[in-house]
TrEMBL record:
GO terms for molecular function: 2 iron, 2 sulfur cluster binding; metal ion binding. It catalyses: glutathione(in) = glutathione(out). This is Mitochondrial glutathione transporter SLC25A39. Solcar repeats lie at residues 1-83, 91-175, 185-279. It is a multi-pass membrane protein. It comes from the Eukaryota. Keywords: 2Fe-2S, Heme biosynthesis, Iron, Iron-sulfur, Membrane, Metal-binding, Mitochondrion, Mitochondrion inner membrane, Repeat, Transmembrane, Transmembrane helix, Transport. One of its GO terms (cellular component) is mitochondrial inner membrane. Signal peptide: none annotated. Pfam families: Mito_carr. Belongs to the mitochondrial carrier (TC 2.A.29) family.
Length: 292
């Protein structure tokens, strides 16, 4: 019998789809997990059985995708925010919301084909020559839009998340700066604001994350089984199905792991980014003063 299984591995920044055929493991690093009773239990058992380093497994492919995606995302946000605020003269708390949503939309659209390429290489163990043939075949059969397969569910999750994240981040950061009477956010202020806003955005967009996960798994299994994927189940149809099966609990499945994953990730990224901006701004200012 032809056996296939698909699972989604998330490590805080990117999602990884792996499809296993004939019951065989599809990657060298993945081992069949034991039963986990909770997030803390999973940390303990993974560390005990596979070592601390296994908690960072899958990091190289994550960095390959996360670095360009993050560069595009943060750069676009800063530019759009300044354009709306200073270039076009708009004022109000909604500016970070609009800029954050548009920045994420642009980043997802640019990275989506690369994400598909990475997924194919990881799940099917293709060489670069085989990958080129596979992509050409996919484009010839389904058109260029096939390279953006899965774009819709990703946008539905990531765009609202980013819009809410930046909206809350700017508000919390401003409040903390006023509370501590500082004109510019410190590392601790940025870290705290990033964690709070990331947790809020993660909770509010969790149903879209659940739908995206199911949709990705569905597409991965359909492709492995050779089933046509021109008309996969729609996002809203999946959401209605989850609601019918499990109610609101199904749409908010994985609540605690997602918050534990997203909040510190957002805190580390934004505080590091803000620290880097301040550092290089100061360095450039010192250079200008020395040149004068």
């Amino acid at each position: 019998a032809y056996l296939t299984s698909c699972f989604l591995y998330c490590n805080g920044l990117m999602d990884h789809i792996y499809v296993c055929q004939y019951g065989a493991s599809c990657t060298s690093w993945y081992k069949t997990p034991t039963h986990f009773s909770g997030t803390l239990d999973a940390f303990v058992k993974i560390t005990r059985n596979e070592g601390v380093r296994s908690l960072w497994s899958g990091l190289p492919p994550t960095l390959v995708m996360a670095v360009p995606a993050t560069v595009i995302y943060f750069t676009c946000y800063d530019q759009l925010r300044d354009l709306l605020r200073y270039g076009m003269g708009f004022q109000g708390n909604y500016i970070p919301l609009v800029a954050g949503g548009l920045a994420r939309l642009g980043a997802v659209s640019v990275i989506s084909p690369l994400e598909l390429v990475r997924t194919k290489m990881q799940s099917q163990k293709l060489t670069y020559s085989e990958l080129r043939v596979c992509i050409r075949s996919s484009v010839a059969q389904d058109g260029w839009l096939s390279l953006w397969r899965g774009w819709g569910p990703t946008v539905l999750r990531d765009v609202p998340f980013s819009a809410l994240y930046w909206f809350n981040y700017e508000l919390v950061k401003a409040q903390l700066c006023d509370q501590y009477h500082v004109s510019q956010a410190t590392f601790s202020i940025s870290f705290t604001a990033g964690a709070i806003s990331g947790a809020v955005a993660a909770i509010m967009t969790l149903p879209f994350d659940v739908v995206k996960t199911r949709r990705q798994i569905q597409l991965g299994e359909m492709e492995t089984l050779g089933v046509p994927v021109k008309n996969p189940t729609s996002t809203w149809h999946i959401m209605r199905g989850i609601w019918a099966e499990s109610g609101y609990r199904g749409l908010f499945a994985g609540f605690l792991p997602r918050v534990i994953k997203v909040a510190p990730a957002c805190a580390v990224m934004i505080s590091t980014y803000e620290f880097g901006k301040i550092f290089f701004q100061k360095m450039n200012l010192d250079r200008e003063q020395q040149a004068c």
